Give the backbone structure.
Amino acid sequence: MAPVRASKRGMALAVLAAVFAAAGCTTAFEQQLAEAELLRVEAAAAGAEWLQTGALLEQARDEAAGGDMDAARALVDKARFQGEAALRQAEHEASAWQNRVVQ
Amino acid sequence: MKNSAAMLLLSLVPMLTQQAAVAGPEDDREAFVEYFQSRFPDVAFAEFANGIYAIDEDARGQWLDIEEFPPYEFAVEQGETLWQEALPDGARLADCFGQSTGDIRPAYPRFDAGRGEVVTLAVAINDCRQTQKLPVWPYDSEELISITAYLAYAARGKPVVTQIHADEPGALAAYEEGKRFYYSKRGQLNFACSDCHVTSVGLHVRADRLSPSLGHTTHFPVYRSKLGTVISLHQRFSGCVRDVRAKPFALQSEEFRNLEYFLSYMSNGLEFNGPGARK
């Protein structure tokens, strides 16, 4: 599967932020969570999702539900980093793999 | 002048690299075999079917001891029983295949032009069950894996003959997807299959040595001592993907079937010798 290009990804996140802003019904944390989840989904669509990203988001939801927002935000940050890194990896590997073919 | 010549050469590098990357399957296979034979010049080609035991003397000794009382024997027997069991309408699984038992394993994986995808032995067995209006077996089920163990045993000594027909562009595309998967880095550890099983082949990962990819598909399913059970090739794929901290694909997913297709083609000419026994 072709990785999502960075510009398209930025556009998707901007649209997502606008939708949240228009709805006016979410907290900043929920928006961060949704953005990190979008990155995870895009990485999965590129066949590049990392092992623990989904679990980090689940833990973040649990921490938020338990009222520990600092812990929840820290977990979302980690998940977001993983989503972005997975997508960068997929973009790089779209051509870099060819250099490893045994010749 | 010298600088111009150097620049010209440098400008050709990407073209040459790309040219090599789109080499045909047979060019790929020949280069693959040559690579492993040059890394292990004392190992005969046929020996690569034995995986890590081709290059690790100590492990080979332990394996030969284990083979005195093969731990996969129960799976083979269970598979034979299921294979010969009469289905509700009186037919048998064997009726779906129309081949002698020993010829079934070598016929897979194959590209099915009608479906436009790679069909593996496990998928073909479940297809058969569906035609018999029976529920499919999960791909990690004891029943399905034991049947593949029986069919692998029946095919021992037969050559791997994975086909990519020139008149089936879908087959070449599936092969190329498997090849791309094999050489692509993934996961938090940023590893490709080839990083371990080509570039670092023979080196240690903790107490274990990394096995050569040449021959990887000939001996599955395998009994894993550490798990105490027989596992499929796709379960091994899943374990490797998880080991590099990427989210594994489903067993018998398109990604893993294409990977199996590529790796099987790389092992053409070796003999089937499954089921195997591994740590």
Notes: The CA atoms of residues 70 and 238 of chain B lie 25 Å apart. Chain B has two domains: 25-70+166-278, 73-154.
